[in-house]
C-alpha cells in the first residue's frame, strides 16, 4: 500500500459502515459503532473498550454502555453482514467452515468462563470457548457468525447467569447444536454454501453429520479413526421375527450373519477395497517449504447411525502425507456417488481459512481482547469483530486488484503462484518426480497484503494462537 491508498481507507470505512445505519435508531449510538470498529482497525496494542475509548477521546463508560447496556438490535447488524456476503461474495464453489476458538480469561465473571480445554493453548486452562461459522470463496474469506459455548456448570447456576445477563432461554447445548444454529441462520439470510467442512471433533458426531445430510447440505469433514460404518452395506430386513413368547426382534434390523460395522482405520488397513487400492498423489498446497503432496485412497462408505443401521451412500477418503506417511487423515463426505475426488478434496483442505480468520482476528482486530462481564457485550463484540474483519477482507481483495488463483479446481496446465491453495495434478504412486507449475510471479510477494498469505501449521512461526503469525505486516 502507498500513502494515497492509506488515505482512502477512512472514507472507504465510512461508506462501508453507513450500510449499517438503519440498524440503529439513535444517531449517537450509531456513532459508537464507528468508534469501536476504528479502534479495532487501529494500531493499539490492546483493543478492549478502555484503550479504544481513550484513543477516541471519549468517556470509557460511554463505550462500555454502548457494548453492554444500550438498546440496539445487534442481531440486525449480523443479518446485514451476512446479507452483504450473500449478495456480493456469492461463489459456486463457496465453502462454509465450522470451527471453534478459545480465549484465556482470568477470574470467574466473564460469561461462560471455567477451567476447560482450550485449543488456543492446547491444554486445560481457565477461559471461554466460542463456536464460529466462516465463509470462503475464491481468494476471499471472512467470519459470518459466532456464539458462546455455555458450559453445564453455568447452565446449572441461574443466579450466576442472571448476573452475567445471559438470557433465560439460553442453556447448555452441545457445540454441534450451536454449529447447526449458526448454519441455519446463515442459510435464512441467503448464504449458499457449495460445501461445508469441519474438523474431526464435529465429524465424530454421527447425529451432526446426519442433520447436515437431512438439510441437503453437501459436506466433507475430517472424522476420527473410531468412526463406525461399512464399505459394503449389510442387508437390512423389515420382516418381523418372533421366537417363543418374547417381544420379538426389532425391525428394521441388520440380517443375522452380516458383517458388523468397523471403524474407518480398520477398514483402511483390512478391507480389500482400500487395502488393494493404489495411492493417488495430489498436490494439495504450495507452502513456504514447497508443495505439500498427499496420497489419497477413497471408497464408498455407509455410516452407522444411532439405530445401528447403515446410512446412505457416502464417500470415505484416506489421505496420507507423502513427507510423513505416519500422518493420515480420514474424511467422510455426503457428496453424490458420482462426484469425483477433486472437489471433495478441495473442500476438505480448505479448513485453514477459518484458522486464518482466527489468527488475523486475534492478531489484528482484538477478537480475544473482550474484558466485559456481561453476555450482551460479548455477543456484540463478536458481531462487531466480524464486521471489522469483513471490511479488512473486502479492502484486501480490492487493493490486490486482479485476483490470485486460490482454491481453484484441478487443472492439468495450471500456472500457480507459490502461495496458491489447490487440489490437483493427480498421479499414480509409481510415477516419477513431477514438476509443479510456476514460481511466484516477479514482484507478487511485495504486492500481497496480510490476509492473502496462506500460512501453515508446520511453519516455524506457528505461534500462541494455534496459527502462524506475522506481526510485522499489517493492512
Describe this structure as you would to a colleague.
Strands 6, 7, 10, 11, 12, 13, 14 and 15 form an eight-stranded antiparallel sheet that branches. Strands 1, 2, 3, 4 and 5 form a five-stranded mixed sheet that branches. Helix 2 (27-40) crosses helix 3 (49-55), helix 3 crosses helix 4 and helix 4 (60-68) crosses helix 15. Mean pLDDT is 83; it is low at 402-475. The chain has two domains: 3-199 and 354-398, no CATH class; 220-340, no CATH class. It has helices at residues 3-18, 27-40, 49-55, 60-68, 74-88, 152-155, 158-163, 175-188, 200-203, 206-214, 264-270, 272-275, 341-348, 352-364, 375-400, 444-447, and strands at residues 95-104, 114-118, 123-137, 140-148, 195-198, 220-223, 228-230, 236-237, 253-254, 262-263, 280-287, 290-303, 314-321, 328-333, 421-428. The termini are close together. The chain is globular, with a radius of gyration of 24 Å. It is built from 16 helices and 15 strands. Strand 13 (314-321) and strand 14 (328-333) form a beta hairpin. Helices cover 34% and strands 21% of the residues. It is an alpha+beta fold and 475 residues long.
